[in-house]
Amino acid sequence: MKAFFKERIKAVFVVLVFMQLMSCANIVPPTGGDADTTPPKLLSMSPEDSVLNQRVKKIVLHFNKFVEIHDLDKHLSLSPLLEFPPTVTAIGKRVEIKLTDSLLRDNTTYKIVLGNAITDNRERTPYPNFTYTFSTGSYFDSMEVKGQVRDMLSGQPDTGISVVLYDAETFKDSIMLSKKPAYLARTDVGGSFHFSGLPRRSFRIFALGDADNNTLYDITKERIGFLDSAIVSKPATDSGELLLYTSLAAKKVSVRDSLMNDSLRKVSAKFVGRVVSKGKNASAYSVVADTISKDRGTFELTGSLQIKLNAVLGTLDSAKVFLSYLNSGVEAEASRKITHDTGSLYIRDNWLPETKYTLRLVKGWATDTAGNELPPGRYQFMTKSLDDYAKLQIRFGKPYSDSQHVMLVIQEKDTLYNQTLKDSIVNLQLLKPGKCKIIVFKDANGNGVWDPGHVLLKRQPEFVFQHESEVVLKAGWEHEVDFKYVPASSARGMRGNSRPGTNNKLRF
Predict the structure, then answer these.
(1) Angle 325-478-450 (CA atoms, 0-180°, nearest 5)?
(2) Which end of the chain offers a freer environment for a tag, N or C, measured as fewer CB atoms within 10 Å?
(3) From residue 448, how far is each of 309, 335, 454, 500 by CA, in Å?
(4) Highest mean predicted confidence (pLDDT) among 405-419, 467-481, 489-503
(5) Nearest to 247 by CA among 219, 225, 216
(6) Helix or strand or coil: residue 448?
(7) Over the stretch 37-73, which tens digit does the pLDDT of each residue have?
(8) Is the peptide bond before 126 cis (omega within 30 degrees of 0)?
(9) pTM, full prediction
(10) How far apart are CA 460 and CA 262, in angstroms?
């Protein structure tokens, strides 16, 4: 009987202890500890870095942590390129890099860069900037090529561009459409590129906006910059910097096709006087002007008065379209000019500032293609004052004012001015307040259109000179600007001359 009670007491004690432990576990859950943010440590590699006279086909890296490979396509680079890129695999605490050794060239220096692709498998802390170099010959190549890439139209550094080198001896114009280059580098945030570890050799160099990341040139959609002749890699102590300009060959930019009517298309609905005919199948139209604030100048002095049609125009009787203005209290007819397309009418006039205008559309003024008459209407609006605009005087020195250069004044997407330079001073009026760019390009063929480069046609883009800074136009102000172009090479202390009228070899 005593033994029975002892066993019962022992069982109850065990249950109480178990319940106490469970209660403690619920109150204080265990923690996982602090995150380990220390990067993996490389313990060894085989073969060692910087080996000579070896056709390395497998590199094994041993780390102190379990590792993974991430975003290899973004981080991996091989110089020179091979037809088949290296394979990189993480196995536990080991990373294996395999190359097809049969593709390796004799007496060539190879450099493999993995960037931050190797990380630990928990916090993904990278082993940074891994680089491995070996040579299939008895020495390491030490020549280099460096420079900067800029967009021709904007003049700004072109970032994210692939700069590629082809062997000059075997290069053909169409090879870049189908065959990968020998060497590749990418521009940094400042548009700069740098090739190192090159052999002493002649190369053809190209700056490629590689949109599909295949290192081949797509003429329909990718920007390109190029040198007309081969370059030779040099030692670092004797290596100047090249300057390449990119442009898009497939798109011919017409600067004559300015966006002067954009202001009409973008007018807010509250500035539109709308009239709707109630006849059967009749069409509505809109007069694009502020017809509400009749005593406040809102209509631009630089544009056309637009009548937007909601149907296709059939007939137009311009004699029934009247435009008049108040001149010292007397209404006078304006010498308007009417043009139209199938969807709109445009009325032009030498608009007078701070003047009230009246547009009268008399019965029978227009019909649509179904024969329906557009309803008559009467609209009043007032033009802006001269103080709502800025004036700008631009002074040019030689060699711009030689009748071979075209000047553009661009504000956002609008081309405010587009003329061949014939004088050393250009005076502009009625400019909208805001920032504007002053651009000059050398119109080599005299067609008034900026022609981009075309590598297959061996045609360089027409060179663009952009004023050193944007000009801030203020309403009611008269601005004076001395046009100043600062070559990228001067700004960076580059070797080589890219001033107007000098060696074209550095212009792209």
Answers:
(1) 90
(2) N
(3) 33, 30, 18, 19
(4) 467-481
(5) 225
(6) coil
(7) 899 999 999 999 999 999 999 999 999 999 999 999 8
(8) no
(9) 0.68
(10) 32
Q: Residue type for 478, please?
A: E
244: how many CB neighbours lie within 10 A of its CB? 26
Task: Map tokens 């060539």 to a residue.
Answer: 108
Whole-angstrom distance, CA of residue 17 vs CA of residue 21:
6
What CATH number should be reported for the domain whose range is 42-135? 2.60.40.1220
> What is d(CA 159, CA 347) in angstroms, rounded to the nearest whole number?
45
Lookup result for tokens 């149907």? 311
Strand (E) or helix (H) holding 150: strand 143-151
Q: Tell me the CATH architecture of domain 262-385.
A: Sandwich (2.60)
d(CA 36, CA 121): 11
pLDDT tens by residue, 240-293: 889 999 988 755 444 333 322 333 233 333 334 444 444 444 457 999 999 888
Strands (E), 268-375: 272-275, 285-288, 305-309, 313-316, 321-327, 330-333, 337-340, 344-348, 356-361, 366-368
Q: What CATH number matches the domain at 143-248, 1.20.1560.10, 3.40.50.1010, 3.30.420.300, 2.60.40.180?
A: 2.60.40.180
Q: What does the pLDDT read at residue 18?
A: 54
- Rounded to the nearest angstrom, the gap between the alpha carbon of residue 501 and the centroid of all alpha carbons in its chain is 28
507 pLDDT above the threshold of 70: no
| Beta bridge mates, 241 | 146
Assigned CATH for 388-506: 2.60.40.1120
